[in-house]
Amino acid sequence: MVITVEILEATLEHLFLAYTALLIGALVSIPLILLSLYNAKLASLIMRFSNLVQAVPSFAVVAVVVPLIGIGFTPAVIAIMLRVLLPLIKNTYIGLFNVDPSLIESAKGIGLTEFQVIRYVRLPNAYPAIFAGIKFAAILANSIAVLTALIGGGGLGSMIFEGLTNFNTTKILAGTLPVIAIALFLDFSFSKIEHWLTPVYLQK
Questions:
Q1: DSSP characters over 99-153
Q2: CATH code, residues 2-202
């Protein structure tokens, strides 16, 4: 019973950590992406920064946060957020930018504003790319949240590393299995949401 309560608490803590970071990453990404659609220099700068962060190993990103910010929940959130920026930004930008120009011209021709073009033309056509990015970012956040236990992030990662330290197989599995289950659930659920929201003519 004690171990079950511990797993539940660690799982909730893990989910809160990972998806607080993912939400912040999305809130940072969205305005930058929309601005970059109309500013090539900004788009280039954002993509270079995202690619640079993605090129750095996950463990190094987690480690470098410590001397800059310290340890605990907030540094863990920042480390995860930095890792999920690239799939969020890159896939959304590519999806919104690579819409057939004739569709956009037609939309403007019938009097749609820029906002309406984004809402009714760019977004529906970009859903497959956007959801692929969100799904990858969500799964990535789930895995990086395990590593952030090393800097005080808590959650399931703490159980896993505690089990490894004490050679406690039960504790290792108690931390690892929920992480795997979350990843599988995310893959399935985001695939379903993508299918529901993607226009029929774009579905394969």
A1: S-HHHHHHHHHTT--HHHHIIIIIHHHHHHHHHHHHHHHHHHHHHHHHHGGGGT-
A2: 1.10.3720.10
**Rounded distance between C-alpha atoms, residue 172 and residue 174, angstroms:** 5
* HEC readout, 23-86: HHHHHHHHHHHHHHCCCHHHHHHHHHHHHHHHHCCHHHHHHHHHHHHCCCHHHHHHHHHHHHHH
Give the tens place of pLDDT for each residue, 176-204: 999 999 999 988 888 887 777 665 555 55
Distance CA 139, CA 134 (A): 9
Q: Among positive and negative, which fits the CA dihedral 196, 198, 202, 204?
A: negative
Residues in the chain: 204
pTM for this model (two decimals): 0.85
Cα dihedral value 164, 170, 174, 177, nearest 10: 90
In angstroms, rounded to a whole number, what is the distance separating the alpha carbons of residues 101 and 140?
A: 33
Domain ranges of the chain: 2-202
Q: What is the DSSP letter of 198?
A: S
